[in-house]
Amino acid sequence: MTVSYYKKVLKQIKSKPIKVIKFNKFNTPKKRSVGVVKKKCKRCGRVGGHVGKYGLGLCRQCFREIATKIGFRKYS
After folding, report:
1. Coil, helix or strand at residue 63
2. Are 23 and 10 in contact (CB under 8 A)?
């Protein structure tokens, strides 16, 4: 179940507290300790295309924007 679908259903049943409790018990997305979703870009929050080398923690788009400012050069 995606997070957006989970939130959509909660809006629909918010007037029924017992149903909300039961729904939360079985359908709440679990907290991740590892994986793609755990690694987010420090600058924009994207989860895909993560550059973790050298402790950067940036997505590839943000890395391209600020690479020259932080001392990287393009070799080609």
Report:
1. helix
2. yes
Q: Give the pTM.
A: 0.55
> What are the φ and ψ backbone dihedral angles of 8, each rounded to 5 degrees?
-65, -45
Q: Which residues contact 61 (CB under 8 A, 6 or more apart)?
A: 44, 46, 49
Q: Report whether 17 contacts 24 (CB < 8 A).
A: no
pLDDT in tens, 13-70: 888 999 989 988 888 877 878 877 788 899 998 888 888 888 898 999 999 999 999 9
Q: Look at residue 53 and give its three-state secondary structure.
A: helix
Residue 54's φ and ψ, nearest 5 degrees, are 65, 20
